[in-house]
Amino acid sequence: MDIAREKLPQSRIMLSTESYNEITRVLKDLERSTRADFALFFEANGVAVTHAGNPEQFDLSGFSSLNAANYAATREMASMLGEQNAFKFLFLEGEHSNIYICNVNHEFLLSITFSKSVALGMVRIYANKAVKQLQAILEDARQNEEQISEKVLDDEFSALLNDAFDSSFNL
Question: Do 100 and 115 meet the contact criterion of CB atoms below 8 Å apart?
């Protein structure tokens, strides 16, 4: 696949325990609100981050990888159609279950598995709300990470500068 560079993540986010717990809370709220069987938050490369619901029915790692591959294929189809930012949502309809995949940002995806008895419109409404909440959590995590990185660099630079001065003056 020929993926344009601007579609690739600019940097990976290291989630704090607080961010992870907030994401898990959003998934649990989504699962409860939509009566979903399962909600999965994962990296665009297919690595599962967290989930809500019962994952015992399938291999979590395999399921997140297949979701990511499905989304990547659809992203390429969107590109072929001239869509600038890929499709935001995917809907897969089965005999007994449905899957709704959401692009949270280009680094993370959300997959919701739910019964045919659950209204798609309700899932869409709550999924949109969850995506906005997840985007806010990820943006906060990115800002916190940048602040920590800047502080570490400032502290590191100060220590190196002090060492350089000390060695310059033979202290």
Answer: no
